[in-house]
Amino acid sequence: MATLRYGFIGGGFVAAFHLRALREVRGVEVAGFYALDPVDKLIAYCREHGLGEAKAYPNIREMAKEVDVIAIFAPNYARVEHVEEIVDAVKAGAQLKGVICEKPLARNMKEGRRIVELIRSVGVPEAYFENQVHMKPVQAQRLQLRPVMEAMGPPTLARSGEEHGGPHSAWFWDPVRQGGGVLSDMGCHCLAVSWYALTPWGKPPRFLQPQSVWAETALLKWGQPRWRQELLNRYGVDYSKTPAEDFATGMVTYKNPETGQLVKGQFTVSWMYDKQGLRLSLDGIGPGYAFEMNTLRSPLEVFISDAAAASILDTELALEKLQASRGLLCVQPNEADLYGYTDEHRDALAAFQQGRSALLDWEYGLEITRLTMAAYLSAERGTRVDLTDPATNQLLETYVPLIQQGRGAEVLQVL
Ligand SMILES: NC(=O)c1ccc[n+]([C@@H]2O[C@H](COP(=O)([O-])OP(=O)(O)OC[C@H]3O[C@@H](n4cnc5c(N)ncnc54)[C@H](O)[C@@H]3O)[C@@H](O)[C@H]2O)c1
Q: Which residue's alpha carbon is at the smallest distance from atom 22 of ligand 1?
């Protein structure tokens, strides 16, 4: 199979994580990056690890001429313009075999529909990157439980969580640019992975039909004066004026269209999880069986005493969003693989080589956007949102959550 050349839009946190993953993926070469900040470190990393003679491109058009795949790893607020530029480049003759879009697909349905229409207008295969669906523990439990699921029936309850102490760049905290708070940023992961975990073996990812969503959003830590001040000092974001939620939880009910059975996917996300670092959790229960995953359980722990702590160079080498640099630390030696980044690239590359979209296409990403919007609407109204109601679906098409509009103070408590 021919090697596919990747061009990245964005050269920040997630781009660097993907490079770590690509070290373990065959049939790919990194041609370069288009970003607003310097990408010298990423270029050096690519060369050091044999990922390709990467270079910096001045714009998307130039990059599109020299690559097979464009990966959108840039902030959410630039999605639409990036897809427009990719589509213009294809119309101008760029021969792309695939386009990857990191989660979330879009900040709301209007933006999401626009980018799905754009990419479909040129017929380039797509991959929506939702890493958790590709996590080896998520895949392994399905494989292990397959005969049990087939004999006893599919899972009826899945509970997923993604929690850490808060994101690393200013724009994530700004609800207008990012699309909201933690529900927009990380709810998409949990909505996707719980839906997937409930799906009967052998059925496609959108087989189960969403029926209703209820959710709550809250500002539990970062609305307090001390923490608001810290956000202002560190990121220039003022939560007294434009707050976003740092906690959200909710439940989606799905219907199996063949049997009529209703099943439930519960999610919890937070940016106020002051424990070791990032925790992804998922558990599922079916008749007579269960599974449970928690990424803060690692076979590797290290201990660093107060006396030795001064010599620590980079705490995030141990774990994403690590909160402490001493004591008993949880270390995940291969986070890029654990979190599913490696396998989402393998899936996308195999699909693009065959001229088709990946397991999760942009239409799937748009459905996750619809669920996210329904969750915000439910939290705003304090009621369950009925996704079988045509009027509600019509409303969701143009709905922009109050928090995303910068009006979070109307629905969140700021102390
Ligand atoms: N799958 C995951 O778990 C995960 C984790 C982190 C981020 N993400 C997603 O990845 C995307 C990027 O997040 P990040 O953490 O890398 O952000 P970041 O702030 O660390 O980096 C952003 C990068 O994009 C570049 N950039 C900014 N505006 C741009 C523009 N208009 N055109 C081109 N480049 C631009 C910046 O120069 C920088 O290199 C977001 O959509 C985010 O939701 C996903």
A: 12
Q: Give pLDDT, residue 346.
A: 98
> Does any ligand 1 atom lie closer than 6 A to the CB of residue 15?
yes
In tens, the pLDDT along 300-358 reads 998 888 778 766 666 677 678 877 878 888 899 999 999 999 999 999 999 999 999 99
* Ligand 1 pocket, residue 102 CB under 6 Å: yes
**Dist. CA 36 → ligand 1 center (Å):** 10
Nearest-atom number in ligand 1 for the CA of 39 is: 39
Q: What is the pLDDT of residue 319?
A: 75
Nearest residue by C-alpha to atom 40 in ligand 1: 75
CATH numbers and ranges of domains, the chain: 4-132+342-366 (3.40.50.720), 133-337+368-410 (3.30.360.10)
φ, ψ for residue 237 (rounded to 5)? -105, 130
Instruction: Match 């995303």 to its residue by tokens.
Output: 404
The CB of 295 under 6 Å from ligand 1? The reply is no
Write the DSSP symbol of residue 54.
-
**Is the pTM value of this prediction over 0.90?**
yes
Residue whose CB lies within 8 A of the most ligand 1 atoms, among 8, 9, 13, 234, for a mutation test: 13
Q: Among 205, 66, 206, 68, which Cα is nearest to 125's?
A: 68
Q: Write down the number of H helices and E strands in the chain.
A: 16, 15
Q: Running along the chain, 415 residues long, what does each successive block of 10 average in pLDDT?
A: 94 98 98 98 98 98 98 98 98 98 98 98 98 98 97 98 97 98 98 98 98 98 98 98 98 98 98 94 98 96 82 69 82 95 98 98 98 98 98 98 98 96
Instruction: List, as one string, the DSSP characters of 234-250.
Output: HH---TTTS---SEEEE
Span from the CA of 390 to the centroid of ligand 1 (angstroms): 35
Please tell me if the CB atom of residue 408 comes closer than 6 angstroms to any atom of ligand 1. no
**H/E element holding 89?**
helix 79-91
Q: Is the CB of 340 under 6 A from ligand 1?
A: no
> Measured at the alpha carbon of residue 207, what is the angle toward residues 201 and 208, in degrees to the nearest 5?
95
Which atom of ligand 1 has the smallest separation from the CA of 10? 24
Q: Given strand 262-270, what is the order of strands in its sheet?
A: 289-294, 279-286, 157-163, 262-270, 247-255, 209-218, 385-386
Q: What is the pLDDT of residue 311?
A: 67
